[in-house]
């Protein structure tokens, strides 16, 4: 697979919003669910997702940091991001990452009880788009 720069990956990901986040439980069974990174985010190697601290995915990440993010577009772009998950509760970071519309899930904004962020730091990102493919390694 051809090497790709972070800039190339960021360009491919710039308008992507939803992905499937895959985590593993204590028995090494994979669990996936749709997650939003709030769209139109400049990818710099990290992806950010708001959630609740008492969710199953947070519990799984606390036990096994390995996370996969899988994106697909109607234009046949496929992206797999493999990385390390981290749970963030710092109010300054939550405030910085907050976007309009999140209040439908977090009615008290960043002061919603149990709110946190999942930060996924990419180790590797691969993409396939029609005749093109590439791989970025951090």
From TrEMBL:
- InterPro entries recorded for this chain? Split_barrel_FMN-bd (IPR012349), Stress-Dev_Protein (IPR052917), YdaG_split_barrel_FMN-bd (IPR038725)
List the SUPFAM superfamilies hit by this protein, alphabetically: FMN-binding split barrel
Reading the lineage from the top rank, the first entry is: Bacteria
Q: Which residues form the signal peptide?
A: none
Give the matching Pfam families: Pyrid_ox_like (PF16242)
Q: Which residues are in the General stress protein FMN-binding split barrel domain?
A: 6-131
Which protein are we looking at?
A: General stress protein 26
């Amino acid at each position: 697979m051809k090497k790709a720069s972070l800039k190339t990956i960021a360009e491919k990901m710039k308008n992507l919003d939803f992905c499937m986040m895959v985590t593993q439980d204590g028995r090494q069974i994979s669990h996936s669910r749709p997650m939003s990174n709030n769209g139109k985010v400049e990818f710099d190697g990290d992806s950010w997702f708001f959630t609740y601290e008492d969710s199953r995915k947070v519990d799984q990440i606390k036990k096994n940091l390995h996370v996969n993010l899988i994106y697909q577009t109607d234009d046949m772009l496929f992206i797999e991001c493999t990385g390390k998950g981290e749970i963030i509760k710092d109010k300054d970071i939550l405030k910085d990452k907050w976007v309009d519309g999140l209040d439908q899930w977090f009615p008290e904004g960043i002061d919603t009880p149990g709110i946190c962020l999942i930060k996924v730091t990419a180790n590797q990102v691969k993409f396939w788009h029609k005749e093109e493919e590439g791989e970025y390694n951090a």
